């Protein structure tokens, strides 16, 4: 629940600042290529709660904004 509140606040901030939201979902393979890390690294960081992912029908999905936040520390 807290994560969703933070996500909504970030979207509101983006809208106020006049930026268009371009948040795409990526599967683990695309996310791995985007971040230039292995799929195992992504899974490990999700398991240790350092990275947020959605599990839909057994498929791990990542938001581009979450990946960027994770990469930037």
* Computed Rg: 13 Å
End-to-end gap: 22 Å
Enumerate the strands of the largest sheet in spatial order, edge to edge or round the barrel: 1-3-2
Structure class:
alpha+beta
Mean pLDDT across the residues is: 86
Helix content: 55-70%
Q: How much β-strand is present in the residues? A: 15-25%
The number of helical segments is 4
Overall, the morphology is: globular
Compute the number of strand runs. 3
Unreliably modeled segments: none
How do the helices and strands follow one another from N- to C-terminus?
Answer: HEHHEEH
List the SSEs and their pairings:
Elements: H1 2-16, E1 25-27, H2 28-35, H3 39-47, E2 54-56, E3 59-63, H4 64-72
Antiparallel strand pairs: 1-3, 2-3
Walk me through what this model shows:
By secondary structure, the chain is α+β, with helices and mostly antiparallel strands. The chain is built from 4 helices and 3 strands; from the N terminus they run αβααββα. It has helices spanning 2-16, 28-35, 39-47, 64-72; strands at residues 25-27, 54-56, 59-63. Strand 2 (54-56) and strand 3 form a beta hairpin.
Summed up:
The chain is of the alpha+beta class.
Features:
73 residues; 4 helices; three-stranded antiparallel sheet
């Amino acid at each position: 629940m807290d994560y969703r509140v933070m996500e909504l606040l970030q979207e509101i901030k983006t809208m106020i600042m006049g930026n268009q939201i371009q948040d795409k979902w990526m599967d683990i393979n695309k996310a791995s290529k985007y971040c230039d890390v292995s799929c195992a690294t992504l899974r490990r960081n999700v398991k240790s709660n350092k990275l947020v992912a959605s599990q839909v029908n057994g498929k791990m999905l990542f938001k581009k904004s979450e990946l960027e936040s994770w990469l930037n520390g």
